[in-house]
Specification:
Layout (H helix, E strand, L loop, with lengths): L2 H12 L2 E2 H14 L13 H4 L1 H17 L7 E5 L5 H12 L6 E4 L3 H10 L4 E3 L10 E6 L8 E4 L2 E2 L1 E5 L2 E4 L6 E3 L1 H17 L1 E10 L8 E4 L2 E3 L9 E3 L2 E2 H9 L4 E2 L3 E2 H8 L1 H11 L4 H12 L8 E7 L12
Helix pairs in contact: 4-5, 7-8, 10-11
């Protein structure tokens, strides 16, 4: 039975399903059956645009690790590592700082796990944050929280998905509030790990500090699609409420940086100097490297839509690149 038929049968049996249930079912099928990244996929993430992104993530983690005393028991961890490109680039920079810790990836997709194993030899896969080793983490979550299920509410109550005349439709058209208990629970779990064992985590995603309403979107072939069409064949996400994540982390005793735009963070970390060095070593790619930097940093591209926030153990320093 197809996912579409399964969802129709569930709705006809039990009634309309919440947006969180819809996202869970669709994204489990979507990520479990394909490589969604790159030109042949449905979207492109920052690590796939340029090695500079992963290198600067690695540099920020390495700097925090060194200022924490370079604990040998620390490990690298990534939530939702995609193809493993970010981990590969970040670990290359961490190795230059003489970091030799283990590599741990939280991923459930068998397709992506296979790709990650090739990109990050020796990496250990986990199903959840709770499975990570009880050691200090140098952790990154890039475009991970946006795919976690979200609930939507309006004046008429919770928005759900129903079946009308054989088609999936919303039970209400107006939405004025979103919340994601699973997203907040996931952040709380990560924060508990950091407080208990030490370490730092970088959260990078598109979103806002607070106040999102109707941000559910579907991506297919690098274009927007109908979130209710072709269940399991589109990437479904909502914008991340960083304020809610911060509250969840603080509730577990973790320390936090302020949220900052991705472009500003990368510029603060020195992406300009890194771009010039790459161009000097690859003069035939000078224009392409400059274009990659603009795509990552410019306000009209990813620079302000994407935000960055760090969560760290109280005894660890905040990573570089954030405002005081």
């Amino acid at each position: 039975m197809s996912l579409q038929d399964t969802l129709k049968a569930e709705i006809e049996r039990d009634g309309p399903v919440g947006i969180d249930r819809w996202m869970t079912a669709c994204n489990q099928h979507y990520y479990g059956t394909r490589d969604p990244l790159g030109q042949e996929g449905d979207f492109t993430t920052a690590p796939e645009i340029s090695q500079m992104f992963g290198e600067l993530v690695g540099a920020a983690l390495a700097d925090a690790w060194l200022r924490a005393g370079a604990p040998v028991e620390a490990v690298y961890a990534e939530l939702g590592p995609g193809r493993g490109t970010l981990a590969s680039d970040a670990l290359r920079l961490l190795a230059k700082a003489r970091f030799e810790g283990g590599k741990h990836l939280v991923e459930t997709s068998p397709v992506l796990r296979e790709m990650q194993a090739k990109a990050v030899p020796g990496a250990v896969h986990h199903v959840s944050i709770e499975d990570l080793p009880t050691r200090p983490l140098l952790c990154v979550a890039n475009e991970f929280f946006d795919a976690l299920p979200t609930r939507q509410f309006g004046p008429e109550g919770e928005r759900k998905v129903q079946v009308e005349a054989g088609r999936f439709t919303y039970t209400t058209s107006h939405v004025d509030r979103e919340e994601s208990p699973e997203r907040e629970a996931t952040m709380a779990s990560l924060a508990r790990h950091l407080v208990a064992n030490g370490g730092v985590a970088l959260v990078i995603d598109y979103g806002f500090w607070e106040g999102g309403a109707d941000t559910l979107q579907a991506m297919r072939a690098h274009d927007h699609a109908d979130p209710l069409a072709d269940p399991g064949e589109n990437d479904l996400t909502t914008h991340v409420d960083f304020g809610a994540l911060a509250k969840a982390a603080a509730g577990e005793g973790a320390s936090l940086t302020r949220m900052i735009a991705q472009g500003s963070w990368l510029e603060n970390l020195g992406i300009g100097a890194r771009a010039m060095a790459l161009a000097a070593a690859n003069p035939d790619r000078t224009e392409a490297i400059a274009a990659d930097r603009r795509r990552l940093c410019d306000e009209a591209q990813m620079g302000t839509l994407f935000k960055v926030m760090a969560v760290h153990a109280p005894g660890w320093p905040a990573p570089a690149g954030f405002p005081a």
